[in-house]
Design brief:
This protein has 190 residues and is of the alpha+beta class. It contains 3 helices and 10 strands. It is elongated, with a radius of gyration of 24 Å. The N and C termini lie far apart (61 Å).
């Protein structure tokens, strides 16, 4: 049976393809020899570009095949021109002869879970959904952020002493960012 094996070599921007009659004749290589781009280097490049701008870094992810995904955000939204500028800034500082990578720069995504405290602050006064560690969804208006804590105002039926039926009341619920499964902005088309 004819098989092909692609091997990415260290410090190379191309793959070597070897044809053989079986994988037993394929060259052996150590997975640690595959060059990985350092996440801290990419983060520092993004932070350098962010200096003096109202943008903030949400996340940098680098997959095992060197796909770099950079997410930035801004209180007023992200402009495509700024994504292009940041992409070029990063590409100008990474050496394509040493690093084989794919780069993607974009916004955090409007309906995606918040990853950094600045996203919480940007959505104060907006409706959010919180999924607690216990698996309960809470929908309400994000009213405040203080360090790791954030408060959501919700409409909830509350049993009042002396009354037969619970009444709908506004209740404040405080959560910790690192103690919820997610918090995300609820997009409304009203």
């Amino acid at each position: 049976m004819l098989k092909y094996l692609a091997v990415r070599q260290k410090n190379s921007n191309f793959a070597t393809v070897q044809r053989n009659e079986g994988l037993d004749k394929a060259p052996h290589f150590n997975l640690y020899d595959i060059y990985m781009i350092d996440k801290n280097i990419v983060k520092s490049l993004v932070e350098e570009w962010l200096e003096g701008k109202d943008y903030f870094l949400v996340d940098v992810e680098i997959s095992s095949d060197n796909k770099i995904v950079v997410e930035i955000d801004h209180a007023d939204g992200v402009w495509i021109e700024d994504c292009v500028e940041l992409s070029r800034f990063i590409e100008d500082r990474l050496n394509r002869d040493e690093e084989d990578y794919e780069l993607e720069v974009g916004s955090a995504g409007l309906g995606q879970p918040f990853k950094v405290p600045q996203q919480y602050r940007n959505f104060i006064g907006k409706e959010v959904e919180v999924l607690t560690d216990e698996g309960k969804k809470v929908k309400g208006v994000l009213t405040s952020v203080d360090g790791n804590d954030f408060t959501v105002t919700v409409e909830e039926k509350v049993r009042i002493e002396g009354k037969k039926r619970p009444e709908l009341q506004t209740v404040e619920k405080t959560f910790q960012m690192d103690k919820v499964k997610y918090t995300k902005y609820l997009i409304s088309f009203k």
